[in-house]
Amino acid sequence: MDIEQFRRAGYQAIDRICDYYISLRDKPVSSQVEPGYLRKALPAFAPTEGEDFQLIADDYQKYIIPGLTHWQHPSFFAYFPTACTFECILAELYASSTSNPGFNWSASPACTELEAVVMDWTAQLLGLDESFYNTTEVGGGVIQTSASDSALIATVAARSRYIREHPHVAMEKLVLYTTTQTHSLGKKAGLVLGLKVRALEVTAADDFALRGETLEVALKEDVDAGLHPFILVATIGTTSSGAVDRLGEIADVAKNYPFLWLHVDAAWAGVALVCPEYREACQLSAINTYADSFCTNFHKWGLINFDASCLWVRHRTHLTDALDVTPEFLRSKHGDAGVYLSLVSISWVNQRNECRFCLGTVIDYRNWHLGLGRRFRSLKFWFVLRSRGVKGFQKYITDCTKLNAKFAECIRESDQFCFVAKPFLALTVFRLAPKSLPHLTTLELNALNRAFYSRLAARSDIAITQTDLNGVFCVRMAIGAEMTTERDIDRTLDMIEQEGRATLRERED
Question: What is the DSSP string of 270-328?
């Protein structure tokens, strides 16, 4: 493909992307293909001779589009939202047009410097404490692939710090704490690193949030057993219930265990911090006071295309001490391998911290994550932050939250349905529980809701997911597509009520 062929193909691609979004509302939400459809449709081998690009572009429309689930559809309410904005599409196009591995400042200075800037912009947007800013040269932020990567990296840093302070502790004695509502990222970090993982029990009575008393009991049990808990993954807005762990209570307990790293995973809900009215519910003050690391995904509810997971740390040297491997061919006069100064401070848990930072150098982000190469992801942050502005982000978040409030109010007033967890921001977790059938047991209600959800899942005009909260099968509604309007919520409510009545009729038959 030469430049002029690329120009023509690019014009057509943009036109087809626009046509896709114009017609998106009329498409089924979920793909209707069967497993293996694509292998049957495509040749068994790559072509020997190159093909005309128009044929390739047409085959994308013919074979790939039908196999996509449309996460930006106005009736997509499953999992959590996945952002996709035109500004990001253009940013990705520009970034891919100047492909480079971005492993250090010298590889392309703009890539590193823009990431450092936009991570400070987003920290300011969320109201994070200045200790998390890159400009401090002590803490800082970095773009990761996902919240799972962020949790894994935080765990690596926490483990390295703990072993450095406790060199005689055997690795098999270390324990990573999660809760029974923590995303699977906690278990996966333990699996990858060969660590014991203890999931602390949370209850419906506490809105599925981790309480300080639960943590205190676990710490005492494990320490008495000769184990060494070294990190707790707390959550703001759990996947299944939107639960918010009680960070203040956790910190009150953790002050007696000074080497317990607190990582706060706010993958979905964290972006709501852009709105001052949601900061208390999302415990911003506690995050700023107690968290060693904090993560939120702008590619979920933050208008920036995947991947756009943001990780901030209070002390960047905990990352670089754990992850810095710099062979000679990667060294440069501008790199992190400079002269370090040390400062000693006393943290919120009365522990001695040595804060080290490098003078006269730039960030080498390869030492802030597991890989070497890095995509130029900061460009899409820059495009969207400038295009939307703070007010644009705030409007998007509040619009979604208002739509969920409308949905939740109808569930609250319904004789068919009830909440299983308190509605939080743009998430409602509910189940079919007719007031006319108060005698049904939990097992019977679970069976009824499995049948109800099966009817919803069989539809192509909505995407919604199920979950289990401490043995209670339920349905979760997560709003976040930018195209969703009140009309879509009204239609969804009608659909849910219709399928609920049909489920009850089936039961009677």
Answer: GGGGGSGGGTTTTTHHHHHHH-SEEEEEHHHHSS-PSS-EEEEES-THHHHHHH----G
Is residue 324 reached through a cis peptide bond, with omega within 30 degrees of 0 on the bond before it?
Answer: no
Find residue 345's DSSP bridge partners: 353
Tell how strand 427-432 and strand 472-478 pair up: antiparallel
Containing 232, the helix (H) or strand (E) segment is strand 228-235
Check: CB of residue 279 under 8 Å from CB of residue 110: no
Q: Return the SS3 of 183.
A: coil
As a whole number of angstroms, the distance between CA 260 and CA 287 comes to 15
Angle, to 10 degrees, between the axis of helix 486-508 and the axis of helix 442-457? 120
Return the pLDDT at 336: 54
Q: Parallel, antiparallel, or unpaired for β 228-235 and 196-200? A: unpaired
In the numeric block, the tokens 């820059």 are attached to: 382
3-class SS of residue 481: coil
Q: How far is CA 250 from CA 205, 217, 219, 406, in A?
A: 18, 12, 11, 33
Tokens matching residue 461: 């005009």
For residue 434 the two structure tokens come to 């007719």
Q: 133, 123 in Cβ contact below 8 A?
A: yes
- Answer positive or negative: Cα dihedral of 341, 320, 302, 423: negative
pLDDT of 355 reads 52
Alpha-carbon distance 469 to 164, whole Å? 39
Q: In this structure, what are the phi and psi dihedrals at residue 430, rounded to the nearest 5 degrees?
A: -145, 175
Q: Is 40 exposed, middle or buried (0-12, 13-18, 19+ CB in 10 A)?
A: exposed
Say which residue the tokens 């038959």 belong to: 509
Pair 432, 503: CB distance under 8 Å: yes
Q: By mean pLDDT, which of 2-16, 97-111, 270-284, 333-347 is the weakest?
A: 333-347
Q: Say yes or no to pLDDT of 371 above 50.
A: yes
Which residue has tokens 């409308």?
406
How many other CB atoms sit within 10 Å of the CB of residue 35? 6
Read off the pLDDT of residues 206-240 as tens digits, 9 standing for 90 and up.
999 999 999 999 999 999 999 999 999 999 999 99
Strand, helix or coil at 419? strand
Chain position carrying tokens 């930006």: 72
Pull the structure tokens for residue 470: 């401490």
- The Cβ of residue 339 has, within 10 Å, a number of other Cβ atoms equal to 8
Q: What is the DSSP letter of 244?
A: B
Q: Report the C-alpha gap between 59 and 47 in whole angstroms.
A: 14
